[in-house]
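Homework help thread (please don't just give me the answer)

Our assignment gives two proteins as sequence + structure token strings and asks us to describe the second one. The first is just a warm-up. Here they are:
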Amino acid sequence: MRYSINPLAQLAEAREAIRRIVRDGSRAGDVTRRIRALFTKTRAAKQRLDINEAIGEVVVLAGSEMRRNRVISQMELTADLPPVTGDRVQLQQVVLNLVLNGIEAMSTVEDYPRELVIRTQRSENDDEVRVAVQDSGIGLDPGSRERIFQAFHTTKPGGLGLGLSISRSIVEAHGGRLWAVPNDHRGATFQFTFLKCE
């Protein structure tokens, strides 16, 4: 069987592939610069952000990991949230870390659904926006609820114990706070706040 080759179609495909490579390379470079800035104490690139939009991008990024681990995700994003001030890449790092931790906390669960809920809402004082990531996993050890945020403290085999420590540093550098609470029935909820724009 002979196939006809369309040079114009091949050229269009090549252009699209190059465009994606440039876009992904720019994103990777941006992430690298922001991580380097975090460790060298350079000021974060803060801007006005739609926090719901930023979270939506993270959920898409984590989609394959959720499917692989049979996690049911649900987003409860308050529609009329004010914009926040923050570094988009760093904010997304925090959300992604909490989402991946939640997925891992549910990885051994077999006798009930693996449910991950991501919520946004106004905080009680109305100066902040709150983000919560709730899982139905193994829950928190009451004795180590604060220690999990310490650098190099890990409950994972082979873990570095840096994810939550870095996440808390990012949140605090943005004037917010990050904490964890056990759920009433099972699992845990990690929450953080960000200041809304003036």
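The one we have to describe:
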Amino acid sequence: MPRSVLGGHEWGVYGVGWRPDGRLLASCGWDATIRFWEPDTGTCVQVSRDPDGSANFSGLAWSPDGKFLASGTTLQGVYVWEMTTRSIRWAGHQPSTGVRRVAWSMDGRCLVGGGHDGYIYVWEASDGRLLQRLAGHQGAVMSVAFSPDGTQLASGGGSRDNGELFVWDAQSWQRVQALVEQRVVISAVAFSPDGTRLIGGGSDGRLRWWDVQNGECVLVREAHQGTVYALKMSSDGSRLASCGDDGAINVWELETREHLRTLRRDRPYERLSITGIRGLTEAQKATLRALGAVEDPAATSSRHVP
């Protein structure tokens, strides 16, 4: 069970992130707000809104020094918030496109965003000047991530026919690797702590490990029912967390690449045994399992399906 539940957003939450010092948590969603939380008490200490009231926020990232917060929007580029004043420092509205995920360079000098239009945008972090527009993706760019040493950028996305996972040189902004996974959109990306492996989460619910140097897929793991939406490393680099369309967070041991545990809130039929219950179609059973029901011959639950 979760230690605490932070309630306040009026619609779906599409981004969360700890400030680097761990003393503040930010969350954003489709209610056009960014909320800041005091982690020890679970208190919402600040609510920031789009000045126009029209942009839903779809992702966020803290600058390495924790002084700025960047947020992507569903309609009009990015915002960068200055945390000392909790006000917008600059907004990148040109060109006007939705940005699903954002990432800061390791030195904090530039900000990268993946566009719904298939381009990757690189902004000067201090003033929002557009530095680069990287082309190559055929579908929306769903995720971006810098390597731990800051020398490479990974971008994931794709269309119905092909998933795309690209690696870019973060100095020249030239593409140095192109990986394609048929009929699987790469919706989340992360580098291993040593930068030699690239982990991608797909629209098929699987995690894939690639060798960055030769582009070979070295491992595939079943992870979620539905799309993998985000990947996050632990602060010590030993574990990976993945979250997906099934409402679960899976924790993985990076060295062994084994699944450690699943975190989720109880679903409506959590641990309800449907073993031996008659009159259910396979589709109905699948729906109940997705809502937490189990089929276990040793189960003794006497609960009935309503």
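TA reply:
I won't write it for you, but here's a hint about the kind of observation we're looking for: The chain is about 5% helix and 45% strand.
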